[in-house]
Amino acid sequence: MRTPKILTTLKSYSWSLFTADLLAGLTVAMVALPLSLAIAIASGADPAKGLVTAIVGGLFISLLGGSRVQIGGPTGAFIVVVFGVIAQHGYDGLVLATFMAGIILLIAGYFRAGNLIAFVPEAVVNGFTIGIGIIIAASQLQDFFGLTVQNIPADFLEKIPALWEGRETLNLAALGIAALSLALIIVLRRIAPRFPGLLIAVGIGSAFVYFMNMPVDTIQSRFGDLPSQLPHPQWPDMSLSRMGDLLPSALIIAFLAGVESLLSAMVADKMIDGHHRPNAELSAQGVANIASSLFSGLPVTGAIARTATNVKAGGKTPVAGIIHAIIILLVMYFAAPLAGYLAMPALAALLVITAWNMTEPHKWRDYARGRKSDLFLLVLTLGLTVVVDLTVAIGVGVSVGLALRLSRRKSVESDWTPPDR
């Protein structure tokens, strides 16, 4: 069934539901705003691209998706792939790859491929997710410590020694702001989980930089002023040869968008005791990625953390996600200069805690106690993600995982346990 959930929920919509969705949408927007900026920067893109993605992609995922409470936007899972595509093919190459990924997801939704997630071993997803978390954390060390290092290598094994060599350029002011923001995020999450702790923490850290005139980079000082309106839509520059070059990247983007969105929808189902429509969700991801690419945005998918925030804030229907997108649009139009004051170390702290949550450390003991073949598969995928390439990691991980399943001569059934991240 590919009918969007919003068509079902609007049949019995009421003012009380709208009030709940309005408050939830506002809360999620305050969480999504700094995250979208930070993810764009970590991906090697202009920070404004993160806002565009949250607005356009988030709107279409809520309008067309198969979950009542799914929130879409740019996520940390894409950072590694997006950074690599931009480095190799330029930003216009990423736009085309995202457009192609959207087409692939539309085809997957049409052929009802949503249930195929059962064939992807959970250990593979856990492995590359932990690997991505490690890479994201490593990518933020320069801003977290305020290091001045030129031409940092993209390769993880070369990046760490290069950062260590630049340790004498440590900026204590930047480290202090990063540590303060990190501590505030952790404390606010525990004592006031319903508050937009991410925005409050980043805002307080950035306020210190501004009012105390600290020698710390901000979005505005590094990237210039943020735009106060959406860009005009335009078709990506397409040619057969370029599409052929970008097809592997498009397939990985489509795979990540599909898996992440369906995982997020599964988490939401558990929280609200509901049932999402996987094929409608895939189709919505396809339209959202096409739309995001037309506005020169980043790849988009269902965001687990923001979806969980939406549920905890009282979101009841897809209207909450639409409101979240509209609020970010209003911020872009009327408060873009304020976002430019956000401090880079504070955003680095936000991404470090995001990376930590992606690794789900509370599950490590269960991984170690589980089936040895699953642990091997997790470590294999993790190692390939960090040391080699995400494309290779997913290809090898899925192939080895399916081979291990077949060797056990059992029927292929889903072994998923919904993640908590």
From TrEMBL:
It is a multi-pass membrane protein. One of its GO terms (cellular component) is membrane. It is found in: Membrane. This is SLC26A/SulP transporter domain-containing protein. PANTHER family: SULFATE TRANSPORTER. Signal peptide: none annotated. It holds the Pfam family Sulfate_transp. It comes from the Bacteria. Its main location: membrane. GO terms for biological process: transmembrane transport. Residues 18-381 form the SLC26A/SulP transporter domain. The chain crosses the membrane at residues 21-42, 48-64, 93-111, 123-141, 170-188, 195-212, 246-268, 322-355, 375-404. Keywords: Membrane, Transmembrane, Transmembrane helix.
